[in-house]
Amino acid sequence: MTELPNKSFVVAIAGTLVLQLAPALNAKPISQDDWKTAAIADASLAAPPSVTADAKIYGWNKDGKLTLARDGTGSYVCLASGAFSTRVGKPALPYPDPMCLDQNAWTFIQALWNKKKPLPTAPGLVWMLAGMNVTKSAVDIGASTIATKGATDAKVAQMTPHVMIMPLPSNESAAGMTTKYNLENPLDAWIMAAGKPHEHLMVHFSAEDTKALMKPTK
């Protein structure tokens, strides 16, 4: 059985982003069951209903532990906001970053959490249509600048909605794709953690395309 992490376990992902295992939203006390409702609602922002409707969903309980909020029969696993943070050892920033992972990506992320080697190499799909917070110190964004947003101790921006192919089998020496996130052209695809075993492809969507993905016509 996979050992799920808690808030005391922090591990670097992609050499850039940090896995911060802490409650995403703890502004006020929550009941034993309220955290489940909040986790399900938050995780559902990550992907289309065809993904989330029968997905297994994990969230952060009142003790800050990643806990099953809803079982599911589908092939995806969704995590409520808080799996990634730009602030090591501190609560996640107040920006949503839920994700839904297919079985390949879920196997990969668990291997990272449990420090297993070698890492799986089969590419998986990760949905993050709510976006993700980013800082210049955490992600290579070239010459761009990030304005301070909110009362935080980091200069942050909300990365545009995207999907990730993780891990990505790629030969960087032959590839022409950038390895930097471009704030001036935030819909450009790019490779994060290029050259590392856990490198992954970032494919971004506009607000209009995200809306279309989240509310497809019948």
Describe the structure.
The protein is α+β, with helices and mostly antiparallel strands. It has one domain. It contains 4 helices and 12 strands. The strands form 3 sheets. An 8-stranded mixed β-sheet has the order 4-3-5-6-7-10-12-11. A two-stranded antiparallel sheet has the order 1-2. It has a two-stranded antiparallel sheet with strand order 8-9. A hairpin with a 5-residue loop joins strand 3 and strand 4 (about 65-70).
Brief sketch in words of this structure:
It is built from 4 helices and 12 strands, in the order ββααββββαββββββα. The protein is α+β, with helices and mostly antiparallel strands and 218 residues long.
Q: Key terms for this structure?
A:
218 residues; alpha+beta; globular; 15% helix
How are the SSEs placed, and which strands pair?
Elements: E1 11-13, E2 17-19, H1 34-43, H2 49-52, E3 56-60, E4 66-70, E5 77-79, E6 99-101, H3 103-113, E7 124-128, E8 132-134, E9 157-159, E10 162-166, E11 190-192, E12 200-204, H4 207-214
Parallel strand pairs: 3-5
Antiparallel strand pairs: 1-2, 3-4, 5-6, 6-7, 7-10, 8-9, 10-12, 11-12
Ends: how far apart? Answer: 38 Å
Give the helix tally. 4
Mean pLDDT over the full residue set: 75
Order of helices and strands: EEHHEEEEHEEEEEEH
Q: Compute the CA-based radius of gyration.
A: 17 Å
Structural class: alpha+beta
Sheet-strand content, in percent, reads 15-25%
Low-pLDDT windows of residues: 6-30, 85-90, 148-153
Shape: globular
Largest sheet: 8 strands, mixed
